[in-house]
Design goal:
This protein is α+β, with helices and mostly antiparallel strands. It has three domains: 7-119, Acyl-CoA dehydrogenase/oxidase, N-terminal domain (Butyryl-Coa Dehydrogenase, subunit A, domain 1, Orthogonal Bundle); 122-228, Butyryl-CoA Dehydrogenase, subunit A, domain 2 (Beta Barrel), CATH 2.40.110.10; 232-376, Up-down Bundle (Butyryl-CoA Dehydrogenase, subunit A, domain 3), CATH 1.20.140.10. It is 53% helix and 16% strand. It has helices at residues 7-34, 39-47, 65-79, 81-100, 103-115, 230-266, 278-306, 312-337, 347-356, 365-376, and strands spanning 120-124, 140-144, 147-158, 163-171, 180-186, 192-194, 208-219, 223-224, 268-269, 272-273. Strands 1-4-5-8 form a four-stranded mixed beta sheet. It has a four-stranded antiparallel beta sheet with strand order 2-3-7-6, with helices on one face. Strands 9-10 form a two-stranded antiparallel sheet. α4 packs antiparallel against α5, α6 (230-266) packs antiparallel against α9 (347-356) and α7 runs antiparallel to α8. The longest helix is centred in the middle third of the chain and has 37 residues, at 230-266. The two termini are 29 Å apart. The structure holds acetoacetyl-coenzyme A.
Length: 378
């Protein structure tokens, strides 16, 4: 059994770590307050190769694999969780085009994402009435000669205002999970209208909007994968995306823990640093242990993907454990800070708000347990 990283993986991790420390962490508090999408930072991330970490070099990617991608998302999320989710979803979109696209689709879209020409990619699956149950989606795509016409509204779309390309699921045939197809729609298509930005509890610098499709015309070449086979494309993409969210939650948890350890050394009560007290040490010890377990589960899921083995269950286990552990870690980090943890001057307040959604998006943790449970009982 080998636990060490390759030289390349260490390089990517350290590069992402340095960038996050110098460019993201000092600004993350302000971006949170202004709820501003950090365009320049996102462009810089593309320049560093972070928008196509697991994409082949001939498509402009870094070709470093899923383990390196997970490591990089963790580092970026440690500096700015909003940048972490933007990166995770954009990489997922690029991967789904790389995996299911025709040579023309891959060559057209992947380099635009990896180079930063497109600020982001969007994953348009959820709708108002189709969240945990995407098989209930109502957005339609109807054939009209050599075109498709999309109509309806998607919801909770990460980077929906800024994405150069949207991967959109729409109903083209029968009921439920059958009869769903997947399309590539460019961000400047006149029939695609991003709606009002959601006013969120956390991840305030990430962009989350509804996206309306109104007689949105795309050519027949916009179909991604086979007609009526789109649901499986979504599920396979989400398997990888869930490793991304586990990695993001890990980064948020690590940020909170680092702040809590520092604070425990500096803050004095009863004439000594509060870290001298077992009550504080135990919280820090629990945090460290939970994060270590989270890291191992996340790395294992990423490694299984890297070596081409099934990883659906492991991705759901990593997502469930890591996001729940990170929520507990952020809660403890506030407790260590006492009243100071409850004010915006301290980053743990933002960590606590940012981490909450990781138990909800890319499949609630209840859905993850369905995936794990069904896998056990086949
Ligand atoms: N890989 C390949 N195929 C899969 C699969 C997988 N991981 N999971 C399911 N399938 C296939 C099944 O084998 C089945 O195939 P057949 O029709 O040939 O039998 C088909 O897909 C339908 O599967 P199910 O019957 O299991 O479907 P279901 O309706 O019972 O749903 C579910 C299962 C796990 C609950 C699924 O609906 C799900 O994952 N829901 C959550 C959706 C989600 O994660 N949304 C996140 C939105 S994106 C987001 O949040 C991004 C962001 O902005 C941060």
């Amino acid at each position: 059994m080998e636990f060490s990283l390759s030289e390349e993986q260490v390089l990517i991790r350290d590069m992402a770590r340095d960038f996050a420390k110098n460019e993201l962490d000092p600004n993350a508090g302000e971006w949170d307050q202004t709820a501003e999408f950090p365009v320049d930072a996102i462009k810089q991330m593309a320049e560093l190769g972070l928008m196509g970490v697991n994409i082949p070099e001939d498509l402009g990617g870094a070709q470093c694999g899923p383990v390196a991608l997970s490591l990089a998302i963790t580092e970026i999320a440690k500096g700015c969780a909003s940048c972490g989710v933007t990166m995770s979803v954009t990489n997922m979109v690029c991967e789904v085009i790389d995996k299911f696209g025709t040579p023309e689709q891959r060559e057209k879209y992947c380099p635009r994402i990896t180079s930063g020409e497109y600020l982001a990619g969007a994953f348009c699956l959820s709708e108002a009435g189709a969240g945990s149950d995407p098989g209930a989606m109502k957005v339609t795509a109807k054939k009209a000669g050599d075109k498709w016409i999309l109509d309806g509204e998607k919801m909770w779309i990460t980077s929906g205002t800024y994405a150069g390309v949207h991967v959109v699921w729409a109903r083209t045939g029968g009921k439920g999970t059958q009869g769903i197809s997947c399309f590539l729609v460019e961000g400047d298509n006149p029939g695609l209208k991003p709606g009002k930005k959601e006013d969120k509890m956390g991840l305030r610098a990430s962009n989350t909007v509804p996206v309306l499709f109104e007689e949105c015309e795309v050519p027949s070449s916009a179909l991604l994968g086979a007609e009526n086979e789109g649901f499986k494309v979504a599920m396979m993409a989400l398997d990888g995306g869930r490793i991304g969210i586990a990695s993001q939650a890990l980064g948020i948890g690590l940020s909170a823990q680092e702040a809590a350890v520092e604070y425990a050394k500096e803050r004095r009560q009863f004439g000594r640093p509060i870290g001298d007290f077992q009550a504080i040490q135990w919280m820090l010890a629990d945090n460290e242990t939970e994060l270590a377990a989270a890291k191992h589960l996340t790395m294992r899921a990423a490694w299984l993907k890297e070596v081409g083995k099934p990883f659906t269950q492991e991705a759901s286990m990593a997502k469930t454990w890591t996001t729940e552990a990170a929520n507990r870690v952020c809660d403890n980090a506030i407790q260590v800070h006492g009243g100071y943890g409850y004010v915006k001057e301290y980053s743990v307040e933002r960590n606590y708000r940012d981490v909450r959604v990781t138990r909800i998006y890319e499949g609630t943790n209840q859905v993850q347990r369905i995936v794990i449970g069904r896998n056990l009982l086949v």
